[in-house]
Specification:
The structure is a homodimer of 167-residue chains. In chain A, strands 1-2-3 form a three-stranded antiparallel β-sheet, with no helix packed on it. The first copy, chain A, has a two-stranded antiparallel ribbon with strand order 4-5. The model of chain A has no long low-confidence stretch (mean pLDDT 97). Chain A has five helices and seven strands. The longest helix of chain A is centred in the middle third of the chain and has 24 residues. Chain A is an alpha+beta fold. In chain A, strand 2 and strand 3 form a beta hairpin. In chain A, helix 2 crosses helix 4 and helix 2 packs across helix 5. The interface between A and B is large, with 120 and 120 residues. Strand 6 of chain A pairs parallel with strand 5 of chain B.
């Protein structure tokens, strides 16, 4: 099935039953080494870790790198889907995502410094036979519809519950 | 070196030279299959993919799952560091991160639906010999200093550049 047909099928299914538009994603994680975090996302397991400068063994990319991985991969997939939506031929897309962090926020050394990225830069290289203007149009559509770009760009409400387990 | 000593060393180094507080993280990604994205974060390679319902081969967790992986792992590591900062004994910490998505935002079927998570739930289970109140105090310190919690909770400026490559 083409991507365009998949999108049209989703549109028909959701118009008939809007509940089909809702999806919940869930992951679990726990400390499995000094800073090593063992993650399960459905049947996908992976390891997140810090480099030695943050007491870790560098057994995987670290948490903020995973935030950039989410952003870069979501951009790539959204380019694919929106190229299909807009009828734009796309042969490849490369993404570089960079984030600046001031660790005084994480460590609490300066209450005026935010813990997260102070700035993020996205460099996207789409390739194909269309005009530069068409790929600019695609980029604008992607940024308006990319889920992780939205998570970075806007506030998301978090409900947090802590359940203490006596040891 | 203890975590407390590592934190104190960072504080001294940054007080002496504030430039040492700045770090830039970068990842690259490109479409390597239908929806498969090949990622490099320093020397760590990994695969992000969509499930078959979104035309993928499910060769890895998908982009929004990676956003939750970033959040869950960052919470776990921040519990560890802030337990050390606050002198709270922490034997383990388990995190569940859930996010609700309405795909009408991604597909552009409804302009009033945001593409990102409409709600996120964090369930955190710290374990150890301290009182429940101490772990609640720890949880509050973590949420105030966790980089990825901040990225979810607040807007981050993104500078995006598109460089079209003629095919």
């Amino acid at each position: 099935m083409s991507l365009k047909a998949l999108i049209d099928d989703n549109r028909s299914a959701i118009e008939a039953d809007p509940v089909k538009a809702s999806a919940t994603f869930a992951v679990t994680g726990h400390l499995a080494g000094t800073t090593e975090v063992a993650i399960c996302a459905r049947h996908h397991g992976l390891t997140v870790d810090e480099p030695p400068a943050l007491a870790g063994a560098d057994r995987g990319a670290n948490p903020v790198e995973h935030a950039l991985i989410a952003l870069a991969s979501c951009q790539a997939v959204t380019y694919l889907f929106w190229a299909a939506q807009l009828g734009i031929e796309l042969e490849s897309v490369h993404v570089i995502a960079e984030g600046d962090l001031d660790v005084r926020g994480f460590f609490g050394f300066d209450q005026n410094v935010r813990p997260g990225f102070t700035a993020v830069r996205l460099k996207v290289t789409p390739s194909g036979p269309e005009s530069a203007g068409r790929y600019e149009q695609l980029a604008d559509a992607v940024d308006a519809h990319c889920p992780v770009y939205d998570i970075f760009s806007n506030a998301t409400p978090i409900e947090r519950n802590v359940a203490v387990t006596a040891s």
